[in-house]
């Protein structure tokens, strides 16, 4: 894989001030600059996005949004379109479980992914099962279905800009990260499910991440897995020191030829 491993920092609805957002960028910039073998993308709340995008310009860091709307413009109060985002940043996340629980359907996710890719954004689509689905053995079927639905409007040409993130809902913010071997199996399943929609070659090319309670202590266990192309990090990405350590550890795993 020519692409670098990716650490994506999903700040969610944090931090509360522009100054704190700028300080967080500053706090991780050094590690990102030193570890050129790792791609690092920061996903601040919309209100800080333009400032963060300006701050990271020309640096080793990239910026992205946590969501987008599919229509390019119009009467959609409170929404921000993929086209607008593409004028200020390179990345977007769609289909995070914290948005799906608020009512975002698979069809919404598919339309958002299509709009984001068409706007030229690198697009991370999140999929993952609930605790109940996990416990009842439905995870594989459910997640494969989510991939099929999310990619319904995508083509092989999108694979260069497309990233899928396996984020089991029970692992998000819970401190209960998935067993690496289970994450590996699910990421392989996700790649295969994607290949069924966009073709084998494209499915092989796209990046697949793991997300859910990844921190400096366990990041090596995920980025060291075969065909794991990085991690989507929530809570630990808000601590500049810890996230910097994650960047260094990821670089060390790749330098060690563990993948
Ligand atoms: P977490 O969040 O790292 O805090 O578990 C991950 C995510 O929701 O993307």
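Sequence proposed for the structure above (259 residues):
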């Amino acid at each position: 894989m020519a692409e670098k491993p990716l650490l994506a920092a999903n700040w969610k609805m944090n931090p509360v001030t522009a100054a704190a957002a700028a300080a967080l960028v500053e706090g991780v910039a050094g590690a990102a600059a030193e570890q050129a073998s790792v791609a690092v993308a920061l996903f601040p709340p919309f209100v800080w996005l333009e400032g963060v995008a300006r701050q990271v310009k020309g640096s080793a860091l990239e910026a992205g949004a946590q969501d987008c709307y599919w229509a390019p413009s119009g009467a959609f109060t409170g929404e921000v379109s993929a086209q607008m985002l593409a004028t200020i940043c390179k990345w977007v996340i769609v289909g995070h479980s914290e948005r799906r629980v608020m009512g975002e359907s698979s069809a919404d996710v598919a339309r958002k992914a299509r709009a984001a890719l068409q706007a030229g954004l690198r697009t991370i689509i999140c999929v993952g099962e609930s605790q109940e689905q996990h416990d009842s053995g439905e995870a594989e079927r459910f997640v494969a279905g989510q991939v099929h639905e999310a990619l319904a409007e995508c083509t092989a040409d999108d694979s260069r800009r497309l990233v899928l993130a396996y984020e089991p809902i029970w692992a998000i913010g819970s401190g209960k990260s998935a067993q690496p071997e289970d994450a590996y199996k699910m990421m392989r399943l996700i790649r295969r499910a994607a290949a069924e929609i966009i073709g084998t070659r494209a499915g092989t090319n796209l990046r697949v991440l793991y997300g859910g309670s990844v921190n400096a202590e366990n990041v090596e266990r995920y980025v060291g897995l075969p065909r794991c192309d990085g991690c989507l990090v929530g809570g630990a990405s808000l601590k500049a020191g810890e996230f910097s350590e994650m960047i260094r550890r990821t670089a060390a795993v790749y330098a060690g030829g563990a993948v």
